[in-house]
Amino acid sequence: MQFHHQGYVSGDPRIKPASGVGIDRPEELPDEIDVLIVGSGPAGMLTAAQLAQFPDITTRIVERRGGRLEIGQADGIQARSVETFQAFGFAEAIIAEAYTISEMAFWRPDTENPQNIIRGGRALDDAAGISEFPHLIVNQARVLDYFAEVAVNSPSRLTPDFGWDFQSLEVETSGDYPVKVTLVRSAGADSGTTRIVHAKYVVGADGARSKVRASIGCTMAGDQANHAWGVMDVLASTDFPDIRLKCAIQSHDGGSILLIPREGGHLFRMYVDLGVVPEGDNGAVRKTSIEHIIEQANAIIHPYTLDVRNVAWSSVYEVGHRLTDRFDDVLPENIGTQNPRVFITGDACHTHSAKAGQGMNVSMQDGFNIGWKLAHVLEGRSPETLLGTYSAERQVVAKNLIDFDKEWSTLMAKKPEEFENPSDLEDFYVRTAEFPAGFMTEYAPSMLTGSPVHQELATGFPLGKRFKSAMASRVCDTNPKQLGHHATADGRWRIYVFADRALPGAQSAVSELAQWLSTAPESPIAATPAGLDIDAWFDVKVIYQQKHEDIDINAVPKIFLPEVGPYKLTEYEKVYGTLEGNDIFDVRGLSRDGVMVVVRPDQYVANVLPLGATTELAEFFAQIHSGAHV
Predict the structure, then answer these.
(1) Which of 207, 271, 577, 599 could tie 494 with a disulfide, CB 3.0–4.6 Å?
(2) pLDDT (tens digit, 9 = 90+) per residue, 89-117?
(3) pLDDT of 24-65, one tens digit each?
(4) d(Cα 37, Cα 51) in Å, to the nearest integer?
(5) CA-CA distances (angstroms) from residue 1 to 79, 89, 216, 352, 489?
(6) CA 246, CA 102: separation in Å to the nearest integer?
(7) Which helix (H) or strand (E) holds 33?
(8) Could you give the CA distance from residue 422 to residue 35 in angstroms, rounded to a whole number?
């Protein structure tokens, strides 16, 4: 965390000085809004927290509830999400209060006494070291609390506008705020009051029954639900030995359970198999009593018993997999000729079972994807065509998620005798670990992702996939650091310059690149408006092949040591060396001739280029910044 460059800070450095719309921010909804977010779930709150970092953009988030969420249905936090929390500044805090999944146990019927279950195997949660962050379990309500804290501590002082229910919208053909939105007061003394606001853009994060989705004519399609599960968060006394371990439990004839220990050391969640839903059920299964769910759970875990003392929350749901035809308001025939004004995220555009722990996680990445893009367009950094990449990128991700979840939920519902091998479920869990951890997203080449012409120069940073952090030694203070952890959710592009073999001060490809970045009119840095810090739009770091003690920081090119803040203080934390025995060049397959790795504001690798490929770098950013105010 960096502070004091604007002047001495004696209070909490996470609370940024108010600026822009954050100064005397009105409590009442304004008539005109740059971005109106509908729904304060994970996708909506992350989008809001991202946009809150841009104080010249008026962002408001409306929520039908009268206050914060108290009990959240989602609880699984994949490692990719924890990486995202790191960018927003609260990974360490949420890890401290969460339950950490280290292993998963697999229980199945005892072959000698099939009425009893026995532990058949265990699997490490991240045996391959996919991420430096753990797989967590924590209440969705707490995740929303953390994002709310980020938003209110931001320069724009953003807070949700509770008690407003979205009714409808229409996109008008003219005007600076062309999206006309009708809201109804849903809480408070003035409940029932209708209000019209106008927005430049609307983000629908209003769940599976999304009214925003209906307003733009998107349709949901997919499989009808045919299998029901009871889910309960309970405090109970039990002799089941793995009650504090994530478990997949298969009984002989009573169905299956997915057991998820919850944070706090006592609470746990059970997804209890209620079987196939008969045709003509018409939702009757959803009325299944909590007593029946507990009885079914006891049948499945025999010979162990479960004495439920308190039920914190319970529900019944039917597994269905549905996906919208598009994630914005542009009809297929108008793609390329019309720019979107309305977007949908999360459950508003993809629904699936809860047992793969993906709903909240994928929804948050929807929000991360659209948040910075809206900010760049509204600030004039990028053309409106950038917004068309949201639906193009995220719909593919949602389709892949649904395909994965179909396979996983089908396996969970299988009877033991239907498996060719008793370890099939365990094997699938281990084999596909990277997908549920959130790391199989791979964006296709586009205006935001280059083609893999030079991928061999950085094999450990695949184009289109998230930037997988690795250790390097920060020269200024000699501290070993995760390189990716210095990248915050501030809307900046990152250019990581992995140096050739030369030391700083010598004539080299790095010194030539640094000169070009600093002075060339076609350099992407040149797009940064006058009056802003030179690194306001681009965070450019250099990683030398030598150890930190061999690097003379005074010989490092000034583009890697920018002057920042009103006092023009030198930013020293952009210069790195390698660690003995943990050399990032070896760990991530980086060319010893040097390589540039360009990373998007949402942490995905956008381009891999040789150090001398300045023309290619300029051309790549020319299309992204063609609408910028230079």
Answers:
(1) 599
(2) 999 999 999 999 999 999 999 999 999 99
(3) 999 999 999 999 999 999 999 999 999 999 999 999 999 999
(4) 10
(5) 21, 9, 41, 38, 12
(6) 9
(7) strand 32-38
(8) 52
